[in-house]
Amino acid sequence: MAKTVKRVALAVGAVVVAGALGYGALVEYGLHKSYPQSMQPESGSALQAQIKRGEYVARLSDCTACHTKEGGQPFAGGYQLNTPFGAILSSNITSDKETGIGGWTQEQFDRAVRHGVGSHGYLYAAMPYNAYAKLTDQDLTDLWAYIRTIPAVNNKVVENQLPFPFNQRWTLAGWNLLFFHDQVFQPSAQHSAEINRGAYLVDGPGHCASCHTAKNLLGGDSAAYLQGGALQGWYAPDLTPNPHSGLGNWNKEDIVSYLRSGTNRETASSGPMTEAIENSTQYMNDADLHAIASYLQSLPASDSHKPAPVASSATAMLTGKKVFESQCGACHVSDGSGIRQMIPRLAGNAQVNSADPSSLLNVVLNGSQGPFTHANPTAAGMPAFDWKLSDSNIADVMTYIRNSWGNAASPVSADDVSKARASSGAKPWLGGAEK
Ligand code: HEC
Ligand code: HEC
Ligand code: HEC
């Protein structure tokens, strides 16, 4: 399920508005730019070490998330990314000469990965080249050395399935002009080497902002950097040290443990983040995980304030408490404290306190498998309540957990639940049949 909602407010909406800009920009920006090949892949015995480094860069960048279809061959593409305007399929990037990138030079690869120009012209920002632009020459060259070793798979993919005018790639030049900073990572002299490494991992290969930064109307990143972003049916929360909606109450080890195993003393991951952890962050080495944690802790806290909680005497709170005690308390515990490293703590949980309840609704309606990682091979699951509870019961229990034990967040309505049920493909409530 989460596979189909991956990543993101795509930039596709941008094409209509930016289209006009695009044509002029094409001439200015796109056609005449050259991409010099600054480094050559190693050869001989050094090559094996380089391929290993490249494999690590591919892990950091989570290339497999989009380029390997569920049940498909590694990197053979065809994975579908849905946008409000239609579907985009990922490319075959195996070394097949006919349907993959087997005939490519490093320069062509660089052009696609760091500069957003593929075999058919400009790439859609569904491929996160705006983040990969930050990759160093060394990492890009290592990555290419590894990608070239991927066995050829003959699989023809027609990437662009969008209707006119969204299928016009030249219009993307306008989007690039507005939102694409085509520049390699620049370390900051004010920060330690560790924080710079963390910034590189987060903004470059890790492309965390593609989910955790809200998008503007044209699908570009808003200024609220890493302060939370909606992706269809999920909400990727605030990663700044805000104590209410962000990671302010997490220490460094909490962040490291979450990225390595998907769990920590507070919470457990679900949905698209579980996939990012399983495919990518669990493979990061200790120094890199600590670098990410140090960087996130160095960010200025977002200025979202804690709202006044819904009064515990409100009808929704009273009904919600009853639902919680009968359906949820056995696992999450009546004071919302959960079970360490296994069942998320709901009290003081940033996701539960987020203004946007999408992820919570998704998990309660559809259940969640829990992360499955080397560090956490026996994840606990959360059962689905779509069939068991009515829209109004789910709304009330949401309002209750969002406004108890020190939590405070906007109430959730039955209408919100009904919409989430439809958009997340949840089952109808069984009790609803009699109505
Ligand atoms: C979030 C999903 C996503 C991730 C992560 C991702 N890609 Fe892509 N990639 C795509 C999509 C979708 C396309 C096709 C875009 C289009 O047709 O405009 C694409 C296109 C490409 C192309 C262009 C192929 C061609 O024939 O033009 C290359 C090369 C590529 N990706 C390599 C990579 C590498 C290497 C990584 C990891 C560093 C990576 N991708 C990570 C989604 C992704
Ligand atoms: C594909 C989209 C996506 C990408 C890419 C992504 N995240 Fe997430 N992230 C999410 C979602 C959705 C959640 C909420 C999961 C949940 O509620 O269990 C989340 C949750 C988190 C949390 C837990 C926050 C909390 O308050 O519970 C942390 C920490 C986090 N992500 C860090 C990162 C970092 C660091 C990166 C980059 C290396 C990253 N994420 C990349 C979607 C993403
Ligand atoms: C059988 C035990 C169990 C029951 C009963 C249960 N949960 Fe959960 N819940 C879990 C587990 C385990 C997770 C973590 C799932 C994951 O990691 O994907 C979870 C996750 C959650 C989350 C996401 C927390 C986060 O940090 O993203 C919310 C919200 C939640 N449950 C609310 C509820 C509500 C409301 C009920 C009752 C209607 C309920 N749960 C009943 C075990 C349970």
List keywords for this structure.
39% helix, binds heme C, 435 residues, globular, two-stranded antiparallel ribbon, Cytochrome Bc1 Complex, Chain D, domain 2
How are the secondary structure elements laid out?
Blueprint: H1 2-5, H2 14-30, H3 45-61, H4 63-67, E1 80-83, E2 86-89, H5 106-115, E3 117-118, E4 121-122, H6 129-132, H7 137-147, H8 172-179, H9 193-203, H10 209-212, E5 229-231, E6 234-236, H11 252-261, H12 271-279, H13 286-298, H14 315-327, H15 329-332, H16 358-366, H17 391-402, H18 414-423
Antiparallel strand pairs: 1-2, 3-4, 5-6
One heme C is lined by residues 7, 58, 61-63, 65-67, 81, 88, 90-91, 93, 101, 109, 112-113, 118-119, 123-124, 126-128, 132, 147, 159-160.
Structure description:
It is a single chain. With 435 residues, this protein is mainly α. It folds into 3 domains: 2-179, no CATH class; 193-298, Orthogonal Bundle (Cytochrome Bc1 Complex, Chain D, domain 2); 315-434, Cytochrome Bc1 Complex, Chain D, domain 2. Helix content is 39%, strand content 4%. The strands form 3 sheets. A two-stranded antiparallel sheet has the order 1-2. It has a two-stranded antiparallel ribbon with strand order 3-4. A two-stranded antiparallel ribbon has the order 5-6. Helix 2 (14-30) crosses helix 8, helix 3 (45-61) crosses helix 7 and helix 11 crosses helix 13 (286-298). The chain is globular, with a radius of gyration of 23 Å. The two termini are 29 Å apart. Residues 1-17 have low confidence and may be disordered.
